[in-house]
Amino acid sequence: MAETTLETAVADGGLGHSSDHGDHPTETAYWQVFAILAVLTAVEVLWSYLPLDGVALVVPLLAMMVVKFVLVAGWFMHLKYDLSIINGNVFTILFSFGLVTAVLVYIVMIAAFDFQI
Fold first, then answer.
1. For each successive 10 residues of the chain (117 residues), what is the average pLDDT?
2. How many distinct structural domains can be found in the chain?
């Protein structure tokens, strides 16, 4: 059995992923995701200054938050390339479950408040 050296572990990503496959994103792709995140953040900040209340304010902000979460978790945390268990990426499923749970808890908490108009 061949001995794994530090060089071979780094070359294949430490998990048996070969850098020759071309399945990892390029540097250009990272910059594109960064630009999308920057634009979404700017839109979120601008949206928060609009004279909107209630659902018209919160729902678009939550949607943008979900998109940003998916981009960060999928691209910058490399969840797309993690070990697969259930015909997909188990860590992506776990992070998605956490995101859905967080949004639901947020909605329940907001609904529990008694707002006076």
1. 45 44 73 93 95 88 88 75 61 80 86 71
2. 1
